[in-house]
């Protein structure tokens, strides 16, 4: 299948809607493919990159990179299909679909719309929970590395994650008052820089580990049955690894909202394809380096979070910087994934009670050296409650690899494959049983199977970890 297969001719869009508003009455969009790329990189290079070394270790030298590349191609192709559905019934001259759910409602309608909403919001809520867990792990790693550096490697530097989950939640409560995704460009750019920073540090430490020590034990098929794991553990870990890799490419649920930030002086679908191609190419390059070099460094004993696997010793400062970068990046990524959830409830409340000043009135607060902050009582209360909820769930289920695998399994098929292919088939009026129709149906069926087995492996992992989990212990 050609990634840019489309019956539509991409012609230049005419931008003649005035200087302040676009044709839909929305304040004029100012985004470019560069800002869209930053949003995508912020969303996609998150906690998922940290589990790739472990995932490659479960799959081995051949299957690991092949699966990772396969997921990257699938994600890129289906994102192209989504970009052509941003406007309907024609990708250049149709009506804007400003959110993923609106797109599904206008093109597929009916029960598909409700199913999409369920999948999308499970994904976005789950991402916030996963990011809370991961950020706290990185904060704890900084605390422990400094403890070992100060007190020696034999010191009992046990640190609990829970206070750091609270710190992360407080930061997100403050940042969640940023009204919408259109005002997050600077935060996304900072988060994208952080993601490159910690991925590069992890790659550098892995290379140093490979060069400075005897080679770790690796194999063509990954962890060895009878040596590292039992046959059942190998099977379940392989399934979980598929979910971890799927989660690592988890940005389909916000791609429509990101496309809605692009200015209309150029065709949005063309600009978004450039942004998606750039972002997925950069992401895959870093993922392959992290996974392959990390596996070479750790071998079949690869840790779940490869940046905390270098021990908490020297060079402690470099490991600290890497983990600080992770925490800063996830602060931004949390907002990118949470904004659609915030908007869902707020828009519903404003439509339900349009005359309520509590719901709709904006209060402008001047903050020295920062500027004017728009404050709304509904936004303040609802978003605070939401952040607290995600933090509480993270405290209850702090299982890194299994949670990431389950999230990836639950949302990969519906959001990354099913809805994009179905909407494309409907909007492009692809004839049933044509070659393109058959290939897209085969792709969807294959990815559904992958999601099932990944979910099974992750659930098995969560059940196993719950048996030995002791809450509020370090």
In short:
By secondary structure, the chain is an all-alpha fold. The chain contains 14 helices and four strands.
Secondary structure: elements and pairs:
Blueprint: H1 33-44, H2 52-83, E1 87-88, E2 95-96, H3 100-107, H4 110-151, H5 162-175, H6 185-212, H7 231-248, H8 252-259, H9 268-298, H10 316-352, H11 357-360, E3 363-367, E4 371-375, H12 377-396, H13 400-427, H14 435-468
Antiparallel strand pairs: 1-2, 3-4
Task: Name the features.
two-stranded antiparallel ribbon; globular; Hydantoin permease; Amino acid permease 6; mainly alpha; 3% strand; 474 residues; disordered N terminus; single chain
Describe the structure.
The chain has 474 residues and is mainly α. It has one domain (33-468): Hydantoin permease (Orthogonal Bundle), CATH 1.10.4160. Helix content is 67%, strand content 3%. It is built from 14 helices and four strands. The protein has helices at residues 33-44, 52-83, 100-107, 110-151, 162-175, 185-212, 231-248, 252-259, 268-298, 316-352, 357-360, 377-396, 400-427, 435-468, and strands spanning 87-88, 95-96, 363-367, 371-375. It has a two-stranded antiparallel ribbon with strand order 1-2. The longest helix has 42 residues, at 110-151. The chain is globular, with a radius of gyration of 22 Å. It starts with 32 loop residues before the first helix and ends in a 6-residue tail after the last helix. Mean pLDDT is 82; it is low at 1-18. It comes from Stylosanthes scabra. The chain crosses the membrane at residues 33-56, 62-82, 159-178, 184-208, 274-296, 316-337, 384-415, 435-457. This is Amino acid permease 6. Keywords: Amino-acid transport, Auxin signaling pathway, Cell membrane, Membrane, Symport, Transmembrane, Transmembrane helix, Transport. It is a multi-pass membrane protein.
């Amino acid at each position: 299948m050609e990634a840019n297969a489309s019956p539509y001719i991409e012609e230049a869009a005419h931008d003649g809607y005035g200087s302040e508003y676009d044709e839909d009455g929305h304040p004029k969009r100012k985004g470019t493919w560069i800002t869209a790329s930053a949003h995508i990189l912020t969303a996609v290079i998150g906690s998922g990159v940290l589990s790739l070394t472990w995932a490659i270790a479960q799959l081995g030298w051949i299957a690991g990179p092949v699966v990772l590349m396969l997921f990257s191609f699938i994600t890129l192709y289906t994102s192209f299909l989504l970009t052509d559905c941003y406007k309907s019934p024609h990708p250049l001259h149709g009506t804007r679909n400003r959110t993923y759910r609106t797109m599904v409602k206008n093109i597929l309608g009916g029960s598909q719309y409700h199913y999409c909403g369920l999948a999308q919001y499970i994904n976005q809520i789950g991402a916030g929970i996963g990011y809370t867990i991961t950020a706290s792990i990185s904060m704890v790693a900084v605390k422990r590395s400094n403890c070992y550096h100060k007190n020696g490697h034999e010191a009992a530097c046990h640190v609990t994650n829970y206070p750091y989950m609270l710190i992360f939640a407080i930061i997100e409560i403050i940042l969640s008052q940023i009204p919408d995704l259109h005002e997050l460009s600077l935060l996304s750019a900072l988060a994208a820089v952080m993601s490159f920073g910690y991925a590069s540090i992890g790659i550098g430490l892995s290379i140093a580990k490979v060069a400075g020590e005897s080679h770790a034990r690796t194999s063509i098929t990954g962890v060895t049955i009878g040596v590292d794991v039992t046959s059942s553990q190998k099977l379940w870990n392989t399934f979980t690894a598929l979910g971890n890799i799927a989660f690592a490419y988890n940005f389909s649920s916000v791609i429509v909202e990101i496309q809605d930030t692009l200015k209309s002086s150029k065709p949005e679908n063309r600009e978004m394809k450039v942004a998606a191609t750039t972002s997925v190419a950069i992401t895959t390059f870093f993922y392959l380096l992290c996974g392959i070099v990390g596996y070479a460094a750790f071998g079949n004993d690869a840790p779940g979070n490869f940046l905390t696997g270098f021990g908490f010793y020297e060079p402690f400062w470099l490991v600290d910087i890497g983990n600080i970068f992770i925490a800063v990046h996830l602060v931004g990524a949390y907002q990118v994934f949470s904004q659609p959830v915030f908007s869902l409830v707020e828009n519903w409340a404003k439509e339900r009670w349009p005359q309520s000043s509590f719901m709709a009135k904006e209060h402008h607060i001047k903050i020295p050296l920062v500027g004017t902050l728009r404050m709304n009582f509904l936004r303040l209360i609802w978003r605070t409650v939401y952040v607290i909820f995600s933090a509480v769930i993270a405290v209850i289920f702090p299982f890194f690899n299994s949670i990431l695998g389950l999230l990836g399994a639950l949302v990969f098929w519906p959001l990354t494959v099913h809805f994009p292919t179905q909407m494309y088939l409907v909007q492009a009026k692809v004839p049933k049983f044509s070659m393109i129709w058959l290939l897209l149906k085969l792709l969807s069926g294959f990815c559904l199977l992958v999601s099932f087995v990944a979910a099974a492996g992750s659930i098995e992992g969560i059940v196993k970890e719950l048996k030995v989990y002791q809450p509020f212990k370090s």
